[in-house]
């Protein structure tokens, strides 16, 4: 398909959808607590998206059965919400939301904690967030896509963690998954050059142990660490501007 350089009209649409996806993550925060099922959280997110005139992009995508992905502890990504999965004290979880609003996509995820969480888990979460920030700092016209992954991998390695290479960031906005592929472990100055009007996700998945993932044969979606050690992820949708970047899924003015 090639990389889609978005028009001003498309960027405005993607920006609105991205803001809604980010607001869903803020809305759900108060419900993330011990004793709650991940299906309860999924239903809350589903209702929030629908009430705001949008649809959840994951629902029915490639046969995926739910309106968001909720990945606990050793689950790297694509965890399927379930009535049987109950949050317990010490859990860490990623909630990943993609909205379709007026035909445009916004994609974002963040980590949540339940009750008293271990220092090891908090350190992993903090490192993963910093990996995302370092990746975002590489976004500017003329820089190579690969430098995003190079910066992420270098920092994660220094901190003693591994970077999942079997899943990556991607172009997004007009479609759910577009070019370019945004690897989170990459060689310096590899990949296409960034241009104003590109929109894509950066979504590093950082593991305590080995980098590899194993996908549950039973459901075909849930990706876990091979050694059952913890994994964390943060994700934003980014626009390349004339001078650098705009984080389209940032509703807290962090960037």
Task: Give a short synopsis of this structure.
The protein has 255 residues and is an alpha+beta fold. Helix content is 26%, strand content 25%.
Protein described:
The strands form five sheets. Strands 1, 2, 4 and 5 form a four-stranded antiparallel sheet that branches. The mean pLDDT is 98. This protein has helices spanning 8-28, 38-51, 119-137, 146-158, and strands spanning 55-56, 69-72, 75-77, 92-101, 104-113, 162-163, 169-171, 178-182, 199-202, 205-207, 213-215, 223-225, 231-233, 236-240, 245-247. The protein has four helices and 15 strands. It is α+β, with helices and mostly antiparallel strands. It is 26% helix and 25% strand. The longest helix has 21 residues, at 8-28. Strand 7 (169-171) and strand 8 form a beta hairpin. Helix 3 runs antiparallel to helix 4. The protein has a single domain (8-247), classed as Creatinase/methionine aminopeptidase superfamily (Creatine Amidinohydrolase).
């Amino acid at each position: 398909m090639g990389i889609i350089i978005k028009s001003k009209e498309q960027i405005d649409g993607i920006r609105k959808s991205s803001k809604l996806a980010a607001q869903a993550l803020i809305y759900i925060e108060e419900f993330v607590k011990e004793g709650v099922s991940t299906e309860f959280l999924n239903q809350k997110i589903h209702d929030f998206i629908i009430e705001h005139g949008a649809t959840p992009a994951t629902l029915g995508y490639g046969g995926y059965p739910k309106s968001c992905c909720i990945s606990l502890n050793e689950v790297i990504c694509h965890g399927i919400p379930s009535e049987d999965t109950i949050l317990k004290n010490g859990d860490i979880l990623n909630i990943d939301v993609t909205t379709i609003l007026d035909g445009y996509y916004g994609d974002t995820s963040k980590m949540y904690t339940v009750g008293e969480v271990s220092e090891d888990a908090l350190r992993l979460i903090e490192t993963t967030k910093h990996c995302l920030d370092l990746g975002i700092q590489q976004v500017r016209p003329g820089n190579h896509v690969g430098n995003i992954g190079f910066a992420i991998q270098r920092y994660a390695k220094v901190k003693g963690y591994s970077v999942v290479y079997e899943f990556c960031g991607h172009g997004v906005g007009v479609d759910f998954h577009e070019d370019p592929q945004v690897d989170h472990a990459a060689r310096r100055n590899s990949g296409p050059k960034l241009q104003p009007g590109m929109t894509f996700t950066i979504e590093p998945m950082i593991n305590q142990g080995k980098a590899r993932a194993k996908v549950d044969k039973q459901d075909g979606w849930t990706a876990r660490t091979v050694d059952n050690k913890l994994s964390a992820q943060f994700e934003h949708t980014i626009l390349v501007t004339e001078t650098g970047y705009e984080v389209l899924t940032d509703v807290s003015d962090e960037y």
